Amino acid sequence: MSTQEISLEKLRVRQPRFEGIESGHRACLGCGEALAARLVTEAAGPDVMIANATGCLEIFTTPWPESAWRLPWMHSLFENTGAIAAGMESALKAQGKPTKVLAFGGDGGTFDIGFQALSGMLERGHNVLYVCFDNEAYMNTGIQRSSSTPHAAMTTTSPPGSERMGKRHLKKDILSIVASHHIPYAATSSVAYPSDIRKKVRRAIAIEGPTFMQIHCPCPLGWGHEGAHSIEVARLAVQTGLFPVIELERRELIGSMPIREPRPVTEYLAMQQRFRHLFAKNDSRAVEELAHIQALADHNIKHFNLRGEGADALDSEGADTVRRGGMRRS
Amino acid sequence: MLKALEGSQAIAETVMLCRPQVVAAYPITPQTHIVENIAKLVANGRMNCEFVSVESEFSAASLVLGAASAGSRCYTASASQGILLMSEVLYNIAGLRVPMVMTCANRAISAPLSIWNDQQDSMAVRDAGWIQLYCADNQEAVDTTIQAYRISEKTELPVMVCVDGFTLTHTLEPIDIPDQDMVDAFLPPFNFARALNPRNPISVGTLVSPDFYPEARHSHHHALLDAITDIVAADADWQELSGRSAGGLLAADGPDDARIGILTLGSIYGTLSAARDEYTDLPSTRLIRLRAYRPFPADALRRACEGLTDLIVLERALSPGYGGIVAAEVHSALAAMDSTPRIHSFAVGLGGRDIPLELYRKLHDTISSGEVAPFSIIDVDLDKLPMEDRGLGRAVNG
Questions:
Q1: Same CATH topology for B2-188+212-242 and B250-387?
Q2: Which domains occur in chain A, in start order?
Q3: Contacts B201 to A, Cβ<8 Å
Q4: What is the DSSP string of B79-120?
Q5: B250-387: which CATH topology?
Q6: Which of A181, B199, B260, B292 could cross-link with B249 by S-S, CB 3.0 to 4.6 Å?
Q7: Tens digits of per-residue pLDDT, B272-281?
Q8: How far apart are the first and last CA of chain A?
Q9: Can you tell me the ipTM of this complex?
Q10: Mean pLDDT value of segment B72-76
Q11: Could you give the count of Cα atoms lying within 13 Å of A234 in the half-sphere of its Cβ?
Q12: How is domain B2-188+212-242 classified at the CATH fold level?
């Protein structure tokens, strides 16, 4: 048997990554949520326990008797994930174990039906990282609108027609609501920026107390784009200013991903069938809605001061090209 | 040693002796005194556990589910609307076969709103897949709570200990609280084989296709039926240790030659027993008290009903549009007897309506005709209803 000397520095690069989710699960091609969940669990490492809400992630990873999870994982119900996670954390605390608890939910399970349990968990200060995989509708049941669905988007319960231009209401600002529980850390991220996700997961995990991440995850089926375009679509959501990538500590804005060159929202919207009614010819309502959505993006850019001051390796153009694990010296 | 204790305080002290690691609860009358007492025990350092005051009963049940799945012994308590709110979680806990104990301080269900005692709440979750044990008095509530942990952890089924709200929870009685050594000897530390653990990661609560669902239900159903043995064994072992039985599956007492039986669940047994002593002129009567309602002890019930010509089933709930819930099950269980007694079904004491001793005489009068009267709610005063509702009930068994 031959042995080989490997320096510690090289070992770090060469050793296989920890994988919390195995390949072979049944997510759709180009599923943003599957990728985001893999990135989160990779960054979190093996000493975690997961409470998972009902939804696509639960369904496509665990068709009995198969499971894609390499971590202790539990699905109870749709609306109790915050409380299940709080219970796990209470038990681990009582047993004196350092294992970190992660809670996973979609936007329906987080913004809507699971909101109360989430609020209780945050208020009571449980040591849990709650991750919301936000694909902006109830995708598992067949694309119905949630309170996270963006304004004017078409879903099966917010169809456009002679009297409607898709969803009438605004996307709920869940991050502000969550941060208003005075929790130590709340952040948004996007599946288009893996290094940003990793960085934020590590940061959140290191904090003793409730932390929250909202990760923007395109759903090719629900948004109406090719699976191969998921990352491009997700990146445009950030680059247009429609999905600000920000960090809050105790409710205060402490960081944001700068936008090098803001793109017009039409670039983002035109890639997705859920907004196709906004590009109808000779429809003044469409023109009005496009202007409205551009105004929302402009407001975000101004409000969060997202405009970068020049080329930056970690801005909206550069961050996705940064290698895994962030920039290295050599 | 006997101490004069309020039922809720006795239950709280007993829970402490069972050493749960996580307790979660949300306040609802008449459960409040139980969790208030636990909070006090924790605050005074007498009880060492994570006590979590959650934001709803839904989260109370969910939190203990998460905690038990992570390997901790857990406790919660609720009543009435709280039981209904957590019902989705109750089914989930049982389906996942996670052991835990909860107290249901039995109370009526709204509407109309009532904070008083009947058993419609626990009856509403009868099919959730939990073991349900009903207590006749507070000593039984103490002994049953301890036994419940043993039964739950042995069978991997959750146990609901039902105590009548106010009648038991708010009543002072002389109660013997066992000492810690006795409880420790009876109840080994919780060691859940399917606890979540990063060193041996498992997936719990997965999606099951039609290929597997009936098998999972079969296994759950039979686990409950098999739990009959564990309920009997736990009570026998506890009796050996403490000198007290809490009633096994059911308790029947009265002369062997009694031809009339009255079957009840919960604290009403005490009232009937006192009435039987009082009205000695009435025909001798066997009192049967179901302690285990789920699993349903059909064999034991048939044995307890041998020789009876009439069985009165008195229950503290009903299935509107049908009638007696327990009575229906008793009917079906006794159908297999060689000589099935006439079964008379009544709901009594709904929404905390007083159950006087005279009820006993009234019941005997009612069945003396030899006919089986249709199900009715006892003590309904039609004059209290609006005119248009006073004619209701004429089309019985339409």
A1: yes
A2: 19-321 (3.40.50.970)
A3: 69-73
A4: -HHHHHHTHHHHHHHHHTT---EEEEEE---SSSP--S--SH
A5: Rossmann fold (3.40.50)
A6: B292
A7: 999 999 999 9
A8: 32
A9: 0.96
A10: 98
A11: 30
A12: Rossmann fold (3.40.50)
